[in-house]
Design a protein that fits this description.
Elements: H1 3-14, H2 21-25, H3 28-43, H4 47-65, H5 75-86, H6 91-100, H7 105-118, H8 122-129, H9 139-153, H10 158-171, H11 176-191, H12 195-208, H13 215-232, H14 235-245, H15 250-267, H16 270-283, H17 289-303, H18 308-317, H19 325-343, H20 348-362, H21 379-384, H22 389-406
Helix pairs in contact: 1-3, 1-4, 3-4, 3-5, 4-6, 5-6, 5-7, 5-9, 6-7, 7-8, 9-10, 10-11, 11-12, 11-13, 12-14, 13-15, 15-16, 15-17, 15-22, 16-17, 17-18, 17-19, 18-19, 19-22
Length: 411
């Protein structure tokens, strides 16, 4: 921890210690500002500040309860209590404030709504906080209220929840509140399959809060969301996903691309599987287990798209290599499907196409222009496998079912 950070954290905690004359003369809203100081350090990556927060909140509880009843007539002090409890403070502080009978009706409503939210009474919390405009409040409290409102909306109306999180971010830029709002909104964007917002907000978080104490947790959950969005997207969107993943180091990128590739095979997204496995092949150390897994996924995807010969060579070249048990089984399934493709009968029309292509090659003449994607395969491939869409689809389905069984997704 940097010396300046350590000093600041020490001051935040020591100034609130029992018996401190300074602490006893400070107003509640001034006392609660120390929470923001630690939050700022947490956003910068100080785990010491995170560890100090519970102790600070306990000390603040005593100071706030000891405040004179008249202090709660000031909306700033009442708002400070909302910030305090929504930051993890003790709810008994809010109950003491409410029992004083000194709060204005609006502040009483907000405190009661915050208490209901923290106690899990969603219906009451919605009725109390639902019509409060966070923008009408001081930014510090308004941003916290917006976070609570968004959490109450997320299950039933994720799109509206995202709009409220936008407000929280605008009210508290650069703070731990914006950190939290961005993290929550990224995963709501994934839930609603809003690709553009997922990419934009993820990029914002990875650039601006990459050192936050919550960044590692974000990356883990972000990985799952990225798999989903990569499978959802088209080639252009996968490029945008790659730009996001490129902001991570190689040690973080490799397992993510492997997860995308394997999930893509199980989901039957062979274009995505080939793309992600190609990325993984470049990232994996040579002859490592990860390299073998990447080649496996790339080969499996290749035999079922437009690169049968190379894909089969990749699969067969891994026969003697070490793979995790589930991947070894997937390798066997993929080779079996590839071999089946070789032996499936071709229609007379497909046989004629292959013969024409072979004759053209022998006579050094170009073949007739293809009239369908299936006919666009090179002659060597057409002579080896059936190129009909239905046959490829059948093979793909076989491998999808094999992968799904291995994943435990089918009985």
């Amino acid at each position: 921890m940097r010396p300046r950070s350590a000093i600041l954290i020490g001051l935040c905690v020591s100034v609130i210690t029992a018996g401190s004359g300074l602490a006893q003369t400070r107003t509640p809203y001034e006392i609660v500002r120390s929470i923001q100081a630690l939050h700022d350090q947490m956003a910068l990556g100080s785990h010491a500040a995170q560890a100090a927060m519970p102790g600070l909140l306990r000390k603040l509880a005593g100071r706030l309860i000891a405040a004179p009843r008249s202090a709660w007539r000031d909306p700033r002090n009442a708002h400070a209590v909302v910030v305090y409890i929504l930051s993890g403070g003790q709810i008994r502080v809010a109950r003491t404030v409410l029992e004083s009978g000194q709060c204005t009706p609006l502040e009483k409503q907000i405190i009661e709504g915050a208490v209901a939210y923290l106690e899990g009474d969603r219906s009451r919390a919605k009725s109390l906080l639902g019509n409060v405009d966070p923008r009408s409040l001081e930014a510090a409290v308004g941003s916290h209220v917006a976070l609570a409102q968004a959490a109450l909306l997320a299950d039933d109306n994720p799109v509206q929840a995202m709009s409220v999180l936008d407000i929280a971010r605008v009210l508290a830029p650069g703070t731990l509140v914006e950190d939290a709002a961005l993290r929550r909104e990224v995963f709501l964007a994934e839930k609603t399959e809003n690709f553009a917002k997922f990419v934009f907000l993820s990029g914002q978080y990875l650039r601006r809060f990459r050192h936050s104490v919550y960044a590692d947790s974000f990356r883990r959950t972000f990985g799952k969301a990225t798999v989903h969005m990569a499978l959802l997207g088209n080639a252009g969107q996968r490029t945008e996903v790659a730009e996001l993943v490129d902001t991570m180091n190689a040690q973080e990128q490799l397992p993510l691309y492997l997860r995308i590739a394997r999930s893509a095979i199980v989901e039957g997204k062979f274009g995505a599987a080939k793309w992600a496995s190609g990325k993984a092949v470049k990232l994996a150390p040579q002859n490592s287990v990860e390299a073998h897994r990447a080649i496996l996924y790339h080969g499996a995807a290749s035999v079922l798209t437009t690169d049968y010969a190379n894909g089969l060579a990749e699969l067969e070249g891994l026969k003697e290599k070490r793979l995790p048990h589930a991947d070894s089984m997937l390798q066997g399934a993929a080779i079996g499907v590839a071999q089946d493709i070789r032996t499936w009968p071709r229609s007379d029309q497909q046989a004629d196409i292959a013969a024409d292509q072979q004759a053209a090659e022998q006579n050094n003449k170009p073949p007739s222009p293809p009239t369908s994607p299936a006919q666009a395969l090179p002659a060597a491939l057409a002579a080896t496998i059936t190129s009909s869409d239905s046959t490829i689809a059948q093979a793909q389905q076989m491998l999808v079912q094999s992968g799904a069984i291995l994943e435990g997704r089918m009985q």
